[in-house]
Amino acid sequence: MGKISLVLPVYNEQIILRDVLAKYIADLENIRLKHQYQWEIIAVDDCSSDESRLIMLELARKHQNFRIVTLAERSGKHTAVTAGLSIANGDIVMVAEIDLQNPMGFLESLLNEHLQSGVPIIYGYRQFTGWRRRKALMTDRLTRLACKLFVLDGYFNGIVNAELYTADVVAVLRDNPSKTKYMRTMNNWVGWETKEFWYASEYTDTEAKAKMAQLRRRSRNNTSYKKTGHVSSISNWWGLLFLVVATVAFILGGVNVATAHPIFLWVMFTLGFAGIVLAILSFLRTLLLAHIGKVKYHDGEVVYEIKSILNR
Fold first, then answer.
1. What average pLDDT does this structure show over 82-111?
2. Of 65, 73, 135, 243, which cross-links 40 as Cys (Cβ 3.0–4.6 Å)?
3. C-alpha to C-alpha distance for 26 and 189, rounded to whole angstroms
4. pTM listed for this prediction
5. Strand 306-310's sheet: what is its strand order?
6. Do 77 and 40 fall into the same domain?
7. Among candidates 287, 296, 8, which has minimal Cα distance to 140?
8. Share of residues in the chain with pLDDT > 70 (%)
């Protein structure tokens, strides 16, 4: 009989936390009954300023295998995941987000993908529909293009929504002196075999908005909650805007090069070159936020500090 550790980074998720955790617990219980895997949840609180920690404490009182890790300072998702991996003791370790779009049963599907293929690392990618699908595809394609332009092809394969690692992989990640780097970059360096797993979203865009509105009404205090977009997609849209500005400026300058005033030409070509530079910087920022760059990297040094660990 094996054991599964589920690592969940948590930051200001009070509105959806109960619902998502209830879904994950039901999924893990189903895995226990079908596959004989015991389980534990390691929720890493990244210094939430809302009631997320109180909700986690409430669940920890109900479930003996619910562990809470509290970081000493706000450190970001990747560092929270690293802290969770440092204490996970399962034969299989999964990493997932507190996200309503992850459907019931997707943890079992992730496990089945590993059991059938025998691959030690499985990356879960969520499929979108409608406008969100087009936006996600645009972000993905722009980032892939930037990787090719800067000879980084192979380092980015989309935005991962869930991960599965065997205990052997986790042990290597713990001992790696570069463990503060992003996981996929580290796995590329080590040379582990990986496999992609695609799964459908729980809700359509309209259903997701309605669900969030319902949960906000139910929440007792949501003043500290702020919905933010994915920064890398924002960087890509700015990059596109700068490219459009540069293209228009070069066209206007080129068409009127023989008749226009020198100052006009100077302004147009300056805008063009500035747009290209800003576009490149925007795409580079996307790379840094897309599981490629470094986060608080100090060789051999653990950069996070665990304030407390609650074990039941």
1. 90
2. 65
3. 36
4. 0.66
5. 194-200, 121-127, 162-166, 92-96, 2-10, 37-45, 66-71, 306-310
6. yes
7. 287
8. 62
What pLDDT, in 10s, does the model give residues 125-163?
877 655 455 555 565 566 556 555 544 444 444 567 889
pLDDT digits over 56-93, tens only? 998 888 888 999 998 888 878 888 888 899 899 999 99
Q: Within a 10 A sphere around the Cβ of 278, how many other Cβ atoms?
A: 17
Q: Domain total for the chain?
A: 2
| Residues 72 and 217 placed together within one structural domain of the fold | yes
* CA-CA-CA-CA dihedral for 83, 88, 92, 98, to nearest 10: -50
Residues 198, 99, single domain; the answer is yes
When comparing pLDDT for 96 and 149, which is higher?
A: 96
Residue 36's domain comprises 2-224+297-310
Q: What angle do CA 257, 261, 265 make, to 5 degrees?
A: 50
Look at residue 201 in the predicted model and tell me its pLDDT.
74
> Within this chain, do residues 81 and 38 fall inside the same structural domain, yes or no?
yes
Same domain membership, residue 196 and residue 283: no
Asked if residue 282 and residue 304 are part of one domain, the reply reads: no
Closest listed residue to residue 21, CA positions, set 53, 48, 50: 53
Strand, helix or coil at 20? helix
